[in-house]
Specification:
The protein is mainly β and 262 residues long. The chain has one domain: Distorted Sandwich (Beta-galactosidase, Chain A, domain 5), CATH 2.70.98. Helices cover 3% and strands 52% of the residues. An 8-stranded antiparallel beta sheet has the order 10-11-12-13-25-21-20-16. A 7-stranded antiparallel beta sheet has the order 5-15-23-22-19-17-18, with no helix packed on it. Strands 1-2-3-4 form a 4-stranded antiparallel beta sheet, with no helix packed on it. Strand 17 and strand 18 form a beta hairpin. The longest helix is centred in the last third of the chain and has 4 residues. The radius of gyration is 18 Å and the shape is globular. It starts with a strand and ends with a helix.
Length: 262
């Protein structure tokens, strides 16, 4: 485990448990749900690579060949392989670390992470590289935030989710909460409000999965493509030597009303 600190922010990174961030605390406010005993899908903030979200029945076709991924959320495969892999620590300091892992799937490839903490937030950079052969790829993050007092999460469109809880290639107007859905076109900064902090999540990803069905946590997940992108479209194609890279920023600030005594 690695510990990083900056200002009154403190976090842990767990290379042996999917290269994930485990705890992230600002002052006395924990921001991430921390429960390793619940299994790898529901705690901390973990990288999703080489795909994000569900792959329907774990199956897809690439360059004319059909592939079957292990069903880690039967009847589907979900969130790639990086979040259950051991990551090598390439470098670490007081407020940053660099990690790397081999992608455990038929196409090979490598994933790297750079995590940088400062007194106002956290910056995450996730990269996937193709090496021996062409490969499809989607990357993203799965932060399991503690349930906020209030959330501002407005989008222009969302993907239809079918009876198997998998996105299909059809877009509609957003439906009411609760959500386990993929969205496009944020209408305003994505913010979570806690008793003394407001947290803003930003990314150069253009897809966002929001999961708020479960008591106690809200997941705000930036992704470079939609769930099941290998089938419905939206995945990158990487030739040997190509890279897919995205970044996510989680920023925090004291609530103005409470800090001014209102």
């Amino acid at each position: 485990m690695i510990e990083l600190e900056a200002g009154d922010a403190w976090m842990t990174v767990h290379p042996d448990e999917g290269g994930r961030i485990g705890k992230l605390e600002v002052g006395e406010q924990p921001l991430l749900h921390f429960d390793p005993g619940s299994g790898p899908l529901g705690w901390g903030c973990y990288p999703m690579a080489p795909w994000a979200g569900r792959v329907r029945h774990g199956r897809f076709t690439f360059d004319g060949s059909r592939y079957q991924m292990p069903l880690n959320l039967p009847p589907h495969a979900i969130h790639g392989t990086g979040f259950v892999s051991r990551w090598e620590v390439l470098d670490a300091g007081r407020d940053y670390c660099d990690l790397q892992c081999d992608l455990s799937w038929p196409f090979g490839g490598i994933a790297t992470q750079h995590l940088q903490l400062d007194e106002h937030g956290l910056t995450c950079i996730l990269s996937v590289f193709a090496n021996a052969r062409p490969m499809p790829a989607v990357v993203g993050w799965h932060p399991c935030f503690m349930k906020p007092r209030r959330a501002q999460l407005q989008f222009g469109r969302m993907y239809v989710r079918d009876h198997e809880s998998v996105a299909v290639a059809e877009l509609v107007q957003p439906k009411p909460h609760p959500w386990d859905d993929c969205f496009l076109e944020p209408q305003a900064p994505l913010r979570l409000h806690y008793p003394h902090l407001t947290v803003t999540v930003d990314s150069d990803c253009d897809h966002w999965v929001i999961y708020d069905e479960q008591d106690g946590l809200t997941c705000v997940e930036p992704q470079s493509g939609p769930p099941d992108a290998f089938t419905i479209g939206g995945a990158a194609r990487l030739e040997p030597g190509d890279m897919l890279q995205r970044q996510m920023a989680v920023r925090w600030a004291a609530n103005r009303e409470e800090s001014s005594g209102k």
